[in-house]
Design goal:
single chain; about 290 residues; mainly beta; eight-stranded antiparallel beta barrel; two-stranded antiparallel ribbon; 3 helices; about 10% helix; about 50% strand
């Protein structure tokens, strides 16, 4: 049995499944109009919540190959120098007022008890940097971010007072090709810069736990998973401090604009997911 939450206190989370509550006086409209049906995996022919990938892998290869060929054809060999860059930082997802209109995470805020900034978390990455003269530099890099957010229904609990819990998990692995411009040169002691590029974003989003079927008003345990590979824009700026002829350290801000499809027909509460956000990172480069 279930009932609408009363008072401001929350009961401890419950991880047990098999509870089949009866909605007490709550209609689908009172519950916010949300509907999460059970997914028949046999009829769909693939795992619940997972959409087939539609991205063509050759696109990124074409972009990277074009930039690389341009780099070596337009720059004398003597003017090229290289470095390996490492970065450690913090990724903050886009705020609610700037997210896309059909974003599944924003829609979840109206039904589940969690904060959007709980998706913020640590990020790591590495980048191969190639100088193309005194003022320009091209970079090819990869990164990793993953965050899990714990949630419960905001307005409903089981009749025995226990919560109906879920875990929301987002993972993004970007591969990027960027170009940086150094207005004071790449050999100055202090090197401010700005740049832009393109990213290939491999991502996975899942909702795992206990959910309410608003057709039968039962609580059931399930997992909804969406994956994708999408291309988006990357905009960056920062500053480096030269330490000798081979080493430099600095700070960089990187903003990504990218979105993917999760699918209402796969059991999610909205069609797409906004993967954009701002990364703030400390950088360390070693020349070779």
């Amino acid at each position: 049995m279930s009932r609408r939450r009363t008072g401001s206190g929350k009961s401890p989370r419950c991880t047990e499944s098999g509870v089949e509550p009866v909605w007490q006086g709550a209609t689908r409209e009172q519950a916010g109009g949300h509907f999460r049906p059970r997914i028949n995996t046999v009829q769909l022919g693939f795992s619940a919540g997972r959409r087939p990938r539609s991205f063509r892998p050759g696109l990124l290869g074409t972009i990277v190959a074009t930039m690389t060929a341009t780099l070596w054809l337009t720059t004398p060999a003597a003017a090229q120098d290289q470095a390996l860059g490492l970065n450690l930082g913090y990724f903050a997802v886009r705020g609610e007022d700037t997210r896309i209109v059909d974003d599944v995470i924003t829609e979840n805020l109206s039904l589940f008890a969690f904060a959007l900034d709980e998706f913020n978390g640590g990020s790591v990455g590495a980048e191969w940097l190639v100088g193309t003269g005194e003022f320009l530099e091209v970079g090819f890099g990869a990164g990793f971010y993953q965050q899990t957010v714990l949630s419960v229904y905001t307005d409903f609990i089981n009749d025995d007072g226990t919560e109906i819990p879920q875990d929301f998990r987002l993972r993004v692995t970007p591969v990027t090709a960027t170009a940086r411009f150094f207005p004071f040169g790449r050999y100055a002691t202090v090197q401010p810069y700005a740049g832009a590029g393109v990213g290939f974003f491999n991502w996975r989003y899942s909702e795992v736990g206990e959910f309410i079927d608003f057709n039968t008003f039962d609580v059931f345990r399930d997992r909804f998973v969406a994956t994708g590979n999408d291309v988006g824009g990357v905009y960056l700026g920062g500053v480096r401090f030269l330490a000798g002829s081979r080493y430099s350290a600095g700070f960089e801000l990187r903003y990504q604009v990218v979105k993917g499809v999760v699918g209402i027909d796969q059991g999610f509460l909205d069609e797409r997911i906004d993967l954009g956000g701002l990364s703030s990172s400390f950088t360390f480069n070693v020349g070779f």
